[in-house]
C-alpha cells in the first residue's frame, strides 16, 4: 500500500504518526478519513537534576518511540503509506555521528540553565530566548567539544527531537529538520531562508553539526528500523502539527492547545508577519507579544503563522494536585471546580515559570488574589482553571492585535480540552465559540496529514481541513459586561505578579 512521492494510494491507505511530547510518546495509525484507528502511548518523563534544569535521555526517548511505533503497526496489522513525526520543539540533542550515541543529556525546552548566557548575549545585541535551542546547543558543545574540533570534522550532529527521531527511524541515514522546527531554535534567519551565519559565529556553532532544512511534507528517506520500511514523509513541531490537524489552514483560523503550557497559533497563510515590514529578516516578537512562525512548508511553498505562548497551563493543575493536595488527580479538578458557581471573587494568575505572551516576563510569578476567610478548596481550584482560560483569552487578543485578523471560532485540543469548566470559561472570556478537537492530541493528525500529503493520501491542505469534525462546540454563557469585568480583574492580578525576580524580568529577546 506504500507509494512513492506524487502517486496516490488507494482510499484504504493509512499513515503512521509518531508524536514525541514532553512527558511521553504516542504512535497512531490514521486512515484516509482522518480517523485514528489504533494508538499506543508510553511515558518518557524528563528529569530536573537541579533548579531550572530539565533533561531527558535521548537514547531512551528513541527506544520508546521505536517501541510504540512498532506496536501501533502490529496492532494495525498492515502496511502504511508513510510516517509522520511531531515533536516537542526546541529540546536539544547532540550526538556522535558514527556511534549514534548522545554525547550529553537531552536539554528540554523548559530548561533555563542558559539564562546567564542569554543575558550576556543580550548585552552584545543578540537577543535569544532561554527556551530556544541556540544557547542549549552552545552549552552542550562547550561540554563535549570545547574547541569545536570534533564538530568541524563532522563527528557531531545536532538535532531537535524531530531530527533525532528521523535519524533513529532511518538507522542514521537521515539528518534533517523542517522550517517550523528550525525556526524555534533561534539559529535561523528571520525570513526562514536558512541558518543564520551571524548567530552561528557568535555561539561558535559549526554549520557541519546542523541538519538540512527540508519541506515539512516530503519524503526524506525510509524508516528502515520499522516493519516494511515506510517512507518518512512528514516533520513538524507539535504546535504546527496541531494547527494543521485541526484544519486551521486559511488566514484567521486559529487553535489553542492546553497541555503543559498553552500555545495559540493562528494561520496567516502567505503573509509573514515580521514586526518591521521593511525588514522581513527581523522576526522578533510582535508588539502584542506573539511570534511569527513557519507553520509548514510543502512543495517549497511556505505557510506562515503567529504564535502566542502561556508558559503555564496544565502545570498549574499538577501543582494544586501534587504540591497543594487540593485534588487527588488532574481529572478531579473539573468536578471540584464545578461544585461552586464561581470563584467567590478569587483570581489566580498561572505564572509559575513566568509570563509569556503578551508581556514576556520570565521573572513574573504566579499568585492567588482576592482570597477571604470564606475562600475554600473549590473556589481555589476553580480559580486555577479559570486562570488558565484567562491566559487563553490573552493569547487570542494578542494574536488578533499582531496579525490584524479576526478569529471567529477557536479550536481547542490538549489534555485540558477534556475539562468542561476550562472549555466554558475559555468561551466566556474570549467571547467566541470553542470547537473541541475530536482527538485530545491533534498533533497526531497533523503529523499524519503532512506524511500523507507527501505521498498522495490527501491532495492538499484543504482536503485535510475538510476532515475536521469537532467533538462539541461550546458557546459563551456570559454577556459583554461580565466578560469585560472579569478580564479587567485578571489584568489587575497580572500586574501584581510581574517582576518578582528582577534579573529574569530583565531578559528581552
Describe this structure in words.
This protein is an alpha/beta fold and 509 residues long. The protein has a domain at 14-239: ATPase, nucleotide binding domain (Nucleotidyltransferase, domain 5, 2-Layer Sandwich), CATH 3.30.420. The chain has 16 helices and 21 strands. The protein has helices spanning 58-76, 115-123, 133-144, 149-152, 161-169, 179-183, 197-203, 238-245, 314-323, 332-338, 377-403, 420-430, 442-455, 461-465, 480-497, 502-505, and strands at 14-20, 24-31, 36-43, 55-56, 83-87, 93-96, 106-107, 156-159, 176-177, 212-213, 217-222, 231-237, 254-258, 262-269, 291-298, 301-310, 347-349, 367-369, 410-413, 434-436, 472-474. A 7-stranded mixed sheet has the order 15-16-14-13-19-20-21, sandwiched between helices. A hairpin with a 3-residue loop joins β13 (254-258) and β14 (262-269). α1 crosses α5, α8 crosses α13 and α11 packs across α12. Mean pLDDT is 93; it is low at 1-11 and 277-283.
Amino acid at each position: 500500500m506504500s507509494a512513492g512521492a506524487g502517486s496516490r494510494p488507494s482510499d484504504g491507505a493509512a499513515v503512521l504518526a509518531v508524536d514525541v511530547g514532553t512527558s511521553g510518546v504516542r504512535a497512531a495509525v490514521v486512515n484516509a478519513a482522518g480517523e485514528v484507528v489504533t494508538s499506543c502511548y508510553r511515558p518518557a518523563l524528563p528529569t530536573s537534576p537541579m533548579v531550572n534544569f530539565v533533561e531527558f535521555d535521548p537514547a531512551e526517548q528513541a527506544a520508546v518511540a521505536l517501541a510504540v511505533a512498532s506496536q501501533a503497526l502490529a496492532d494495525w496489522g498492515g502496511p502504511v503509506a508513510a510516517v509522520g513525526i511531531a515533536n516537542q520543539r526546541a529540546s536539544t540533542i547532540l550526538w556522535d555521528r558514527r556511534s549514534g550515541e548522545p554525547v550529553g543529556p537531552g536539554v528540554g525546552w523548559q530548561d533555563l540553565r542558559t539564562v546567564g548566557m542569554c543575558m550576556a548575549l543580550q548585552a552584545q545585541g543578540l537577543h535569544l530566548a532561554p527556551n530556544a535551542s541556540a544557547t542549549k546547543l552552545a552549552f552542550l558543545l562547550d561540554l563535549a567539544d570545547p574547541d569545536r574540533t570534533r564538530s568541524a570534522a563532522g563527528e557531531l550532529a545536532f538535532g531537535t527531537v524531530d531530527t533525532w527521531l528521523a535519524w533513529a527511524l532511518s538507522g542514521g541515514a537521515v539528518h534533517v529538520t523542517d522550517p517550523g522546527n528550525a525556526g524555534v531554535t533561534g539559529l535561523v534567519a528571520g525570513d526562514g531562508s536558512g541558518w543564520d551565519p551571524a548567530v552561528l559565529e557568535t555561539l561558535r556553532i559549526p554549520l557541519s553539526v546542523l541538519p538540512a532544512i527540508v519541506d515539512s511534507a516530503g519524503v526524506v528517506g525510509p524508516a528502515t528500523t520499522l516493519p516494511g520500511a515506510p517512507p518518512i514523509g512528514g516533520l513538524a513541531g507539535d504546535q504546527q502539527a496541531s494547527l494543521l490537524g485541526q484544519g486551521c489552514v486559511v488566514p484567521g483560523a486559529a487553535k489553542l492547545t492546553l497541555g503543559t503550557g498553552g500555545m495559540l497559533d493562528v494561520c496567516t497563510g502567505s503573509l509573514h508577519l515580521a514586526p518591521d515590514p521593511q525588514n522581513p529578516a527581523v522576526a522578533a516578537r510582535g508588539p502584542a507579544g506573539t511570534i511569527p512562525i513557519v507553520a509548514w512548508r510543502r512543495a517549497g511553498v511556505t505557510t506562515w503563522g503567529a504564535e502566542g505562548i502561556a508558559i503555564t497551563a496544565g502545570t498549574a493543575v499538577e501543582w494544586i494536585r501534587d504540591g497543594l493536595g487540593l485534588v487527588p488527580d488532574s481529572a478531579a479538578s473539573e468536578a471540584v471546580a464545578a461544585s461552586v458557581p464561581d470563584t467567590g471573587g478569587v483570581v489566580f494568575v498561572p505564572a509559575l515559570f513566568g509570563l509569556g505572551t503578551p508581556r514576556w516576563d520570565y521573572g513574573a510569578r504566579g499568585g492567588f488574589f482576592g482570597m477571604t476567610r470564606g475562600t475554600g478548596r473549590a473556589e481555589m481550584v476553580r480559580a486555577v482553571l479559570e486562570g488558565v482560560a484567562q491566559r487563553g483569552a490573552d493569547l487570542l487578543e494578542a494574536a488578533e492585535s499582531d496579525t490584524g485578523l479576526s478569529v471567529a471560532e477557536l479550536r481547542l485540543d490538549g489534555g485540558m480540552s477534556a475539562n468542561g469548566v476550562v472549555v466554558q470559561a475559555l468561551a466566556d472570556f474570549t467571547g467566541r465559540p470553542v470547537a473541541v478537537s475530536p482527538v485530545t492530541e491533534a498533533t497526531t493528525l497533523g503529523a499524519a496529514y503532512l506524511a500523507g500529503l507527501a505521498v498522495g493520501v490527501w491532495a492538499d491542505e484543504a482536503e485535510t481541513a475538510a476532515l475536521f469534525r469537532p467533538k462539541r462546540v461550546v458557546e459563551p454563557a456570559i454577556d459583554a459586561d461580565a466578560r469585560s469585568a472579569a478580564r479587567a480583574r485578571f489584568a489587575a492580578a497580572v500586574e501584581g505578579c510581574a517582576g518578582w525576580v528582577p534579573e529574569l524580568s530583565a531578559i528581552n529577546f
